[in-house]
UniProtKB/TrEMBL annotation:
Gene3D superfamilies: Vaccinia Virus protein VP39. It holds the Pfam family LCM. Its EC number is 2.1.1.-. Signal peptide: none annotated. The lineage of its organism: Bacteria, Pseudomonadati, Bacteroidota, Chitinophagia, Chitinophagales. Belongs to the UPF0677 family. InterPro entries: Ppm1/Ppm2/Tcmp (IPR007213), SAM-dependent_MTases_sf (IPR029063), SAM_mthyl_Trfase_ML2640-like (IPR011610). The keyword Oxidoreductase does not apply. Keywords: Methyltransferase, S-adenosyl-L-methionine, Transferase. Exhibits S-adenosyl-L-methionine-dependent methyltransferase activity. This is S-adenosyl-L-methionine-dependent methyltransferase.
């Protein structure tokens, strides 16, 4: 994945969240009043104008033609991960770690995280850009921003440097990252997660291996892979869903949920919007078992 200050895919997700936030309180899936801060001027204007129904419809059609299914799967996925994170906290998580945080704003916008330690971990370029966009705001003391260059440091080394507490149940959010990594990096990350206390939870996204092997089998798959490759954000890794429980078991985790975009769209947008595409983009939720 390109280690730039601001990836295009991260900007698109921020745009989707900003657009959703312009809906009325009774209709929107979540509120993210910070998402617009990460947008370049043109997209910021588009987000602002999305409160106009006609403009929103045009914008959504443009997005669908460019990346079929990305908008509706993106906003439904955001809501799903919010709810899974709240479930992990209800079940005993006492700190949150957001791996490859990008433009994630959950530490700022989710009330149930207020006062709980939230640790964001990201590449120095992205972290600096994010903090520059948030510089005019008061950042609560419970949120900490740590930087890591994986070419020079491991998560284990970062944990030792900042004295991570491995003894408490932790909720991990790992969104929009695994599809850019190598199998070795995936293994190393789960080895790091395995060090945390039983009762910890991990929420992560992944792409179905099938879209990498045969993109034409999925709506919009070929177009999307060409798009991300052109942005120097080529997808390199996927899971076969049926193999996921066994993989997680190797690292002491039990799979609780594994939903594709068609499923989480149905959960939150069943009565609002019908759209196909992005079914290969999945959200998994797993719990760390006792040793």
């Amino acid at each position: 994945m390109k280690e730039s200050a601001s990836s295009k895919t991260a900007q698109y997700m921020a745009l989707f969240r900003a657009m959703e936030t312009t809906r009325s309180k009774t209709k929107r899936l979540f509120t993210d009043k910070y998402a617009h801060l990460f947008l370049p001027p043109g997209l910021k204007v588009a987000a602002r104008l999305s409160h106009l129904r006609a403009f929103r419809k045009v914008a959504e059609n443009i997005i669908h033609k460019k990346i079929p299914g990305a908008y509706t799967s993106g906003i439904a996925r955001t809501r799903l991960i919010d709810e899974l994170l709240e479930e992990a906290v209800r079940k005993g998580a006492r700190q949150v770690m957001i791996l490859g945080a990008g433009f994630d704003t959950r530490g700022l916008r989710l009330p149930f995280l207020h006062g709980m330690p939230v640790i964001e971990i990201d590449h120095p370029n992205t972290a600096r850009y994010k903090l520059s966009r948030l510089s005019g705001l008061h950042i609560p003391r419970h949120i900490r921003y740590y930087q890591i260059d994986f070419n020079k440091q491991s998560l284990d080394q970062l944990g030792a440097q900042h004295h991570f507490d491995f003894s408490v149940p932790t909720a991990f959010v790992w969104e929009g990252v695994t599809n850019y990594l190598t199998a070795e990096a995936i293994d190393n990350t789960f080895g790091f997660l395995q060090r945390f206390a039983p009762g910890s939870h991990v929420i992560f996204t992944y792409v179905h291996q099938g879209v990498l092997d045969n993109p034409a089998a999925f709506t919009g798959g070929e177009k999307l892979l060409k798009e991300v490759a052109g942005l120097e954000e080529k997808w390199t890794f996927g899971f076969v869903p049926s193999s996921l429980p066994g993989f997680l078991q190797r690292y002491g985790f039990s799979l609780l949920k594994d939903l594709g975009a068609d499923e989480y769209r149905s959960l939150y947008l069943g009565g609002r919007e019908k759209e196909e595409g992005y079914e290969f983009y999945r959200v998994a939720f797993a719990r760390r078992l006792s040793d």
